[in-house]
Design a protein that fits this description.
The protein is 13% helix and 37% strand. It has five helices and twelve strands.
Length: 334
């Protein structure tokens, strides 16, 4: 994961060099003209740089909760988005204009996301009865491309006043790379318990045999993952130095453990930690009549055949993601 931070740092250092004017003072032999102890180059850099304050809502797409449709009937995509779990996001950024339609930004975000099987009527998901909440801390480097060339102009449309007119609304697209930290927790006996150290899918436990099949748990997952921000937005210039933007973004991650759910059930009776055993299967907290595979003759010792070792607990092929819908206030440094 340290390589991701090195990539971000390299881009931040290199891009300002690429965005400098092609004509330098070294070529002309002239010295920078100073105004108030600032060179022309310093003033130009400030003119192209903005500080950002970001606030909005956050949500996520994980294995928990989601659509009421049965598996195999299009159980995927944004139909899994549960509006009841919407939380907040707040962030700060520094944006610098590279030239023309291109801008670069380094931003830090803090958000909260959550999910619960209790919010869906899908029988198998509801029976699974898992839930989580997690903070998200993201650091990302982003490139913004505007449809039109952003130019500051007159705040008011005055008849007879010559000069550039400010654009009403400018649409833009964002692509980026970054890393984020998360820490899924579940409520247990009135307290919120971190799930990753417990290894609720048997992470760190020994391989077991069940019904002729070998179940080999993986090692514990990392709580830091790479993220690719993608966004579309609209920005409007308020005056020469201030602007506001409305943005909708999706964060593609490379982890399936944002909600601590990914692969299969481990043997509930093989855990060395009783808390891990209790939080690995929570179907036993429900009435057995809710079990979609209910059988009065079942006597396997687990709440249901769906909770036996090796049965699907999540979908490892479908990585988790999260979304921001935010408003950004921008102020030029000059």
């Amino acid at each position: 994961m340290k390589y991701i931070f090195l990539v971000i740092l390299s881009l931040v250092i290199i891009n300002p060099l690429l965005s400098q004017d092609t004509e330098s003072n070294d070529e002309t032999g002239k010295q920078d003209i100073k105004f108030n102890d600032e060179t022309e180059e310093e003033k130009n850099w400030k003119d192209k740089t903005k500080l950002e304050f970001i606030i909005g809502t956050a949500n996520c797409l994980t294995d928990l909760g989601g659509t009421d449709e049965q598996a195999g009937e299009g159980l995927a995509g944004f139909r899994d988005l549960e509006m009841k779990t919407t939380r907040h996001v707040i962030g700060f950024g520094v944006e610098h204009r590279l030239g023309g339609h291109l801008y670069q930004k380094l931003a830090l975000y803090h958000a909260k996301v959550s999910g619960s099987d209790a919010l869906t009527n899908n029988p198998k998901r509801r029976w699974r009865n898992l839930s989580f909440r997690s903070p998200i801390v993201e650091l990302s480097y982003q490139i913004r491309f505007t449809i039109n060339n952003d130019q500051g102009g007159h705040r008011y449309k005055l008849k007879g006043v010559r000069g550039r007119k400010s654009l009403q609304v400018n649409t833009y697209f964002v692509f980026g790379i970054g890393a984020f930290w998360f820490n899924p927790k579940a409520k247990y006996n009135g307290n919120w318990v971190a799930l990753q150290p417990l290894g609720t899918e048997g992470q760190g436990q020994s391989a077991i045999e069940f019904n002729g099949k070998t179940i080999t748990p993986s090692s514990k997952y990392s709580r830091i993952s790479m993220v690719l921000p993608m966004a579309i937005g609209m920005t409007r210039q308020v005056n020469r130095d201030m602007s506001v933007a409305l943005e909708m973004s999706y964060r593609k991650t490379f982890t399936d453990y944002l909600d601590d759910v990914s692969t299969v059930y481990y043997d509930q009776f093989a855990f060395s930690d009783p808390v891990a055993a209790d939080l690995s299967i929570r179907s036993d907290e429900l009435d057995s009549s809710l079990d979609p595979e209910y059988s009065s003759t079942y006597s396997g010792g687990y709440p249901s055949i769906l909770n036996e070792p090796g049965q699907g607990r999540g979908d490892p092929d479908d990585k988790d993601g999260y979304l921001f819908f935010s408003i950004t206030f921008k102020k030029r440094l000059r």
